[in-house]
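User: What would this chain look like folded?
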Amino acid sequence: MLATMKLRVSVAITITIAGLFSLTGGPTWAESVEYEVTVLPPVPDSFNWVAQGLNNHGDIVGWAQFQRNPFFLRAWKWSQDEGMVLLPAPPGRDALRYGARDINDAGVIAGDGGGDGGEAWRFQDGEYTLLGTIENDPLSTGPGLNENGDMAGYSGDPSFGRPKHLFRYTDDGGMVSLLSGRGTGINDSRQVTGYFEKTYGGGWEAVRIDADGEVLYLGFLPGHKDSFGFGINNAGQIVGTSRRSESSTAFVYTDGVGMRVIPGVSRWNSAVAINKRGHVVGSATDPGRSFRWTPETGTQELTSLIEPSLEIQIRSAMDINDRGQIVAYGLDLNRRENVQLLLTPVGGGIDCQSVNKFKNKCKKGKLKSIVTSGLPGGTELTIDNGGGTKSMVLNNRGKGKVKWNGQDGEREMTIVECPGRTCTVNCPGNDSCRG
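Assistant: Here's the prediction, encoded as structure tokens.
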């Protein structure tokens, strides 16, 4: 295990200036600090490393490149408790070349051989599941992962113009080709997003494929010829980019609304991830700049939302979780070095001192969590029962509850946004605890 280096900036008061935000226009430059910054430690002996995905606990996964020592590419996981840990090598042909792409709240990790070789895999409880390929394809990738352990990706040939199979993988159905294209994300309802290959070697259209196989073609923004879906949330909202020859525009798709433009920060813009609140992160490539978009604030450059004295330029946002944490990489302007970053909303986004009671009770396998608080109505909390999570929306009295059925064994109950609020309850007997 490697030592963990953190750089944290705590800001007691966040100042919001009236009229600062634009709902429909271009990006704004904030005059308040909204995120604490954690700088992840580098992976020793690697010459390049990139964070890829995070879960609601703030755990992050990614890949690191080496000068064949003997590894060329290795997957890693970082967490607040364990620091930086390299995953063991998978069996088979990817033993010296494997990178992590995403992680869910149960700690399941999805990855592959790097995108131009190998096959998609899933790492769970210390063991690998190799997904294989379709029709003897030479490779498969696995960028999409949901809370059930289902995955989405593509199986195909990396050569230009060769057809690729957009797939969904489930334990009960295996790897199933859904259409010609590439899969990028999957939600808990098994809806898959990605992009359909209209013609071999060119022409792409963003899609959403339901669990029953029904395909929704999202189309393009006016004057554009291609579109790509990159992220999906449990409401079925999709984010991505719509492209024409001289520029690209980030978008968010919502049922009943359609494809909505996300104002960019440069000429080439792409939205890559969306959380349950509909908050979006993305990046632009000329030069590297990153943004956050919400329906309330519009587009804001992420660099403007952190403490300026850090002198860090956030160049690319990779993922956002339901707590509003963002994983990104940037440039340390003092040392002129690339850094991997975890951005956490100031105060964690939740006033945990306002949580008055956190009670958990299990009776005959039925587990119930109840929160009583002084938090405002509509506040969302994430309750972890040691094997899965559920969202709790507080009512106007600051109260909320969630239930699980069929629970067995010892359950460590935690409010994810307030890690100190935890306790252990035993099921299926009659037991309770307060955290």
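The chain has a mean pLDDT of 87. If you want, I can go into more detail on any region.
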